[in-house]
């Protein structure tokens, strides 16, 4: 049994799927407390095809970046800051996604991340 559980994502159009589309697993550095050293590794089929979700330092707890296996940023989510001065809750985000990335896949990762962190 693993200390850090994993979450599996399945395609909705494949009802009887036995193999998940992706797996998200929490990675933490033991010496850092309060999830500050935690990131999430997302694996698509093999370890060579993966993404990392990592919190943005100095930002709200809901701000994070998604990197591909080459370390390049493919998406970034931040707490929405409207110009009117109204303060939104932590679950209202601005999401910037690179054009070459599957946007529905990124939304699945954002949703799982929010559920894991009890923010949605």
UniProtKB/TrEMBL annotation:
Q: Which domain of life is it from?
A: Eukaryota
By its UniProt entry, which InterPro entries does this protein fall under? Answer: LOR, LOR_sf, Tubby-like_C
Q: So what family is this one in?
A: Belongs to the LOR family.
Q: What is this protein called?
A: Tubby C-terminal domain-containing protein
Q: Which organism is it from?
A: Malus domestica
Q: What is the lineage of its organism?
A: Eukaryota, Viridiplantae, Streptophyta, Embryophyta, Tracheophyta
